[in-house]
Amino acid sequence: MRSSLLAISLALSSMAPLAAQEQPATTTKQGAGKDAQERLKITIRVIPSMVKFDTTHFEVNTGSAVELRFENGCIMPHNLVLIQPSAENALIAGVNALGAEGMQKHFVPDVPGILASSRLLQPQGFEVLSFNAPEEPGKYPFLCTFPGHWFTMRGVMQVRPRGERLQAAQRETEKTATVPDALQTAGISHRPQGTLDKPLLMRTFLPDPGLDPAVFAHHGVGIPGFKYDPATRSDLSQKKQDPSTGKTEEIPQRVPTQPGIPGAIAVNHGESFSYAWDTTECRLLYAWRGGFLDMDPYWGREPGGGRANLYIPKLLGNLVYRASGAAPFEDSAGGSPRFGGYRMVGNAPEFWYTAGSRTIREQVLPGAHGRFELRIQVEGGVLESPWKAGGLDQGVVEVHPEGPGKWRVQFRDRPEAAPAPSGTQTPQN
Ligand SMILES: [Cu+2]
Prior knowledge:
The protein is mainly beta. The protein is about 5% helix and about 35% strand. It has two domains: about 10-185, Immunoglobulin-like; about 200-220 and about 260-410.
């Protein structure tokens, strides 16, 4: 299908807004299709910390000029990629194949079917995408392709024939499209799973199944987040009067720190094997089998959406491995680990990171019955000792040197592997 659509990135984050945006939005309205030259303006924002767009559905007429302003008011980076109706699988496969190049490419792979895309916007960034709507009516999905975000960060641009009446955009505040609804529409389960050959990678908060605190050497202590009101799209505050001065102050309302692990990548190879690889510590944190994650607490389930107060997904199944002690390459590497990215090698992601002068690549390969293997390659610096097997409190481990800077670490779980504790723990304030 030929598309007349041209995506032009007009403004980038942290640049001064263009004059066009500063004009009062008086001339353009939804449903004004009489003047083909009129630009249809739509603003899509990120709901902070929710991994959601505030707009999940908007409508345009075929061929109409669209000005889409995308604002990232969240603490995480996000992008917006608008695609042809059937292009999602190719897009996701392309994103997964970007590997270490993902960041530089803004997680926008060079695949067919992309109609418009923003850069990966850093917090408080915005970008305006100007394009002409396709000539073919239909439902055109848009999503954030930052790894794992597309499960919840998605919406649809409905293209209606020229002259047909347009419905108003659906906002999260109108409770018209909940995360459960969006997931159901997209055919995504609350208990998503990959397969042995096609693992599912998700970047999400993860529960801490009672790991040794020494494992979290590089994690900061969580700062309580602001309470957010989707109705006004602003942080909530309370007015408080100082009795001594009589002055009224606005005190921001906070939510308790979540006892979860941020920034980890959860990988599922089906029922038989899942693991969590942390991008802060740059190491395998734990592995489990018998299920993946129950996303209910994170994505929400009840009508109207909204997730639980403690929104850490729950682990399903049994733990087969838990890391403990300092990171294997910490002692002699002379520097904190820095995550580089990952790429798919065969049917498993290969993570890479640097520690001091070294570049380290790690791949976790699933085996049968909860067995798995960690393949490690170290470049740029002599390593005195091999990967340390010490400090593991579960799993039987054998370390096999495979040549200079290369190891295979084999894990076999004990039959009495502990059940995974629930993901919802008491908040620690
Ligand atoms: Cu995102």
